[in-house]
Amino acid sequence: SAITTDMGTLTQEIDRFARDKKLEIETLKVREQYRKEFIGNVSHELKTPLFTVQGYILTLLDGAMNDEKIREKYLKRASKGVERLSYIVKDLDMITKLEVGDLSLKMEVFDIVELVKNVFEMFEMRASKNKITLTFDMDYSNPIYVKADKERIQQVLANLIVNSLKYGNLKGTTEVSIENLIKNKVIVRITDNGVGIEKAHLPRLFERFYRVDQSGARSEGGSGLGLSIVKHIIEAHDEKIYVESQFGVGSEFSFTLEKAE
Ligand code: ADP
Q1: Which of 13, 22, 146, 216 has a Cα at 20 to 30 A from 167?
Q2: What is the ipTM of this complex?
Q3: Using a 6 Å cutoff on CB, does residue 81 contact ligand 1?
């Protein structure tokens, strides 16, 4: 009967081994599919600005070059296309690093209030161009120290604030606030009263390349990678990111950070 028991255990072992292998193969298949989709998306995203740039250059070579006004206009547009391409490539580089787990965080203690102030300064011009007011719902002179990768959190803030400007209403507001949570956490909120997002899109919003088709939004450029970069960075910190939005009313993106003692 000892032999029978051994045989039983062996059969179980073999079964488990087979199950594990099957799972491994499934995982590999999913990964392969993911990789294919990624490459497909990348080429699709690059194609549009590339064709645009090519179009302007060909038109210039076709004779438009002789008209000084048109020449300048087309060259500016071509340059905008190249700029867009370089943004996409930069974002792709970042997302690849994040997904491969190649991006180690440089944790440090810093004042998040000051960082918000710096990012506001970076986008002041752009905000006033869109007639959007940037407001900080706090006292600038009261520091709040957090422990995180400062450069990456700056990027998170920048991406969220840029979005609020891109999808904000003319004469709207973007407001940033910071609130203490329990357990040594703070929550940073970026709220706008812009176009808002329909409920159906919310679950997929942080996926890379995912974009809501909004008239005018595409002309603002962007790669559809901004929010997925934001999510990666926040999750690399073991923190959480949330979105709440009402179509036609506005959106609120928020994320948590660890407070420094
Ligand atoms: P994009 O490069 O298109 O801005 P993101 O990943 O940053 O890519 O955002 C994905 C999509 O989410 C955007 O295309 C836009 O439709 C929507 N979105 C992001 N932020 C906002 C916002 N503040 N208000 C309305 N829609 C937004």
Answers
A1: 146
A2: 0.98
A3: no
